[in-house]
Amino acid sequence: MNSAHPIPPARFDLLARILHWTMAALIVAMLFLGAALVGSLGNYHRALVLHESVGVAVLVLALIRIVNRLRRTAPPQIPAISRPERIVATGSEVLMYALFTAQPIVGWALVSASGAPIRVFGGVLLPAIAPANAHLYHLLRDVHTFLAFGLLAVFTAHMCAVLAHSLVLRDQVLNRMLRTPRFRRTSTEPAPGHPLQAPVPTPPDS
Ligand code: HEM
């Protein structure tokens, strides 16, 4: 291998892959938890505390992810992806990062505007980031709902694109975000011991 021009990795780095799947799970959970929160009759306070804590965790992970994405080069796109598709993919990626960051900040600001204290992770008191104000609260509450629908729409489009690539086009797009398949055989030769494999000659008895 030429050390001056190393072959770029075909997959995102390990941290990017861990953050991607962790955040995907947390954000889906948060969309359900938020909707459940609004419609809940009992356990409202407990659900809100959980929603706030997981939301702040999403914010921290989103910031780590943005820094990691800026510091590490993404693997090259597979050749089957056309230029217009690359532009759409990059645009949706930027939009997702913006939503991942904006939604928790708006949530934090709306609780601040309500005048209620924000305690996360069982006791950490966060400072207010907006003045207590009823009008501001209602405005931010509407923005939080709007961004939640935005997240749901972008998330659904992202899932549909990945499913189309994996199930219809059957290309390698999803593999860029999966762990390295250590046990996958790349050779077309039959595995050792396979009936099609020539028998290994046994050494004559001494
Ligand atoms: C990725 C992060 C987040 C997502 C996806 C999310 C999602 C949602 C959703 C879907 C709703 C229901 C909206 C509606 O039906 O109108 C909601 C409500 C709410 N969220 Fe979030 N949220 C996030 C972060 C946060 C954070 C960090 C806080 C506060 C620190 C927060 C505080 C609230 C509050 C107070 C409500 C309203 C509950 C009510 O009206 O009873 N959210 N959220």
What report would you give on this structure?
- This protein is mainly alpha-helical and 206 residues long.
- The chain has one domain.
- Helices cover 59% and strands 3% of the residues.
- The protein has helices spanning 14-39, 44-71, 83-114, 134-169; strands spanning 118-120, 124-126.
- The protein has a two-stranded antiparallel sheet with strand order 1-2.
- Strand 1 (118-120) and strand 2 form a beta hairpin.
- Helix 2 packs across helix 3 (83-114).
- The longest helix is centred in the last third of the chain and has 36 residues, at 134-169.
- The chain is elongated and about 80 Å long.
- The protein binds protoporphyrin IX containing FE.
- The site of protoporphyrin IX containing FE has 23 residues, from helix 1, helix 2, helix 3 and helix 4.
Short description:
This protein is mainly alpha-helical and 206 residues long.
